[in-house]
Amino acid sequence: MVLQRTRGITILATACELILLSFGFWGWFLVSQWNSVGSLPLSAYATYHAIISLGVILAALKNGGATQISQVSSVRTVGTVRKMTYALAMLSIYLIATKDTIMSRVFLFGFVAVFYAISYLGQIWLPNFIRRLTFSGEREELVLLIGPSSKAAALSAWLTGKRDIGYRAAGMLTDDPAFGGLPDCKVLGTTDDLERVVKEEGITQVILMEFPMFSTVMTNLIGTCEKLGIRMTVVCDFEEKFRHSVVMFEDSGLRFLSIREEPLEDPFNRFAKRGLDLAVSIPVILFILPFTTLFVWFCQMLQASGPIFYRQPRAGLQNRPFDIIKYRTMRLHSIPSSVQATRDDPRIYPAGKWFRRLSIDELPQFINVLLGDMSVVGPRPHLLEHNDQFATAMNNYHVRSHVKPGITGLAQVRGYRGETRSKEDVIKRVESDILYLENWSFALDCRIVFTTIFHVVGPPKTAY
Questions:
Q1: Which sign does the torsion angle of CA 98, 100, 103, 109 carry?
Q2: What is the C-alpha separation between 242 and 278, in angstroms, rounded?
Q3: Per the confidence metrics, is the pTM higher than 0.85?
Q4: For residue 135, what are the contacts with CB-CB under 8 A and spacing of at least 6?
Q5: Element housing 171 (H / E)
Q6: How far is CA 352 from CA 295, 299, 307, 360, 401, in A?
Q7: Mind listing the domains of the chain with CATH numbers?
Q8: pLDDT value at position 282?
Q9: Is 50 helix (H, G, I), strand (E, B) or coil?
């Protein structure tokens, strides 16, 4: 209901503004072209007027239908400039496309000033006028808050901000006997007094300050409000109850709640991500990997002979294991590989330290990307043994496995790489991984790739 009221104000204000702009357009036309009105084709100016009006409408739609017209001067200025930009851009495109030479420059430049004045003053005067006209008297809503006293201050402040659309707090009902109320919102009783208070105070709307935990409570409140013919609104506090942001969606007539958005569940997004993987991995495998492999082999032959590549089980998508491929940077027959590498680790041969620091040892993982086990961008795949250890640091650790692991990721470009020395290290990395999962975009992947390239050229201190 609040949304409908604020949206309606904006729609009516925009419609009134268009009417005023029409008067301004034709009024300025008569003033500026007084001596040649009879010789000018009015149909051409009618077309200009229609294009300008369409630009104003598109600007309003671009602003999200504008659920509220602000009374802040800077915001009004931005809104006015946006409308002018859209209107004049569309008019310019039309004049250039049709090679129109009819419009008078005197008219055009003068109308810009008229447009700005009408639009800016309209945003000051029109919304308040419409509010007074539509949300006063019998259209005013007398609101009763119901719920815990801990939520009262926030809801009371919110209602204060909605006075201009006809909302006025009458008081509240709470089962907290120690709460004495607020200056603008006194306690009128407990939830059991709902019917009495509604009748005595003339309440027209009830707002529940939290979603009731028990269905019987909700059923009773709805029944009372329906019987008395008053509106009821419930504050959605699911994020507080779940202690996580929630996503609401509808499918096949059923409504659902999910605790996170996952853009990569969209097949088109996965197709785009796979396209980036192939576009990056194929050139690396064809033109870079042969030369780096030869160079690594030569260094290993001098310092630590043995296999060029190193395969190791890692946790992949949905924690399914796969063998990651890397250049070997440690000597053979050293301490078990499940022990994390540390700075100045004796297992690493001299050249291997530079391979790790410059991320050269990661290049064979592009073969994993080509095979589909990994992506160029994603959470770094951990050892299976470390997965169980890290999961004790964060309850939602395994959420990161909802997407393919990557050669690089948001955590890495933020500097969270290398040895995990503490619980905080794990938390920071996992938070970045989940943030990536919930906010994936093709542009984000590209930004991470380019940032990683800069990190390879100038490695951070955590790289070793």
A1: positive
A2: 39
A3: no
A4: 5, 164, 165, 166
A5: strand 167-173
A6: 12, 8, 13, 9, 29
A7: 2-134 (no CATH), 139-259 (3.40.50.20), 265-457 (no CATH)
A8: 97
A9: helix
